Description:
This protein has 3 helices and no strands. With about 70 residues, it is mostly helical. The longest helix is centred in the C-terminal third of the chain and has 21 residues, at about 50-70.
Amino acid sequence: MDKIFDKISxxxxxIKGNLRFFxxxxxxxxxxxxxxxxxxxxxxxxxxxxxxxxIPVGIFVHVYQEKHExxx
Length: 72
């Protein structure tokens, strides 16, 4: 278990350090992906669920970051 944590720990540290860059870009990328899936007719696949889940995650990260910085 420690080997797994040793490999994941730097990734988690990097994400926490760069969290401010993930909020709105994640929402924008998700909207573009959702539009592309509809454009190419990929709505019958579970792949279209990914942008739908990433939009609320991006909103949550953005609001969390704004509250953390005191701008909200």
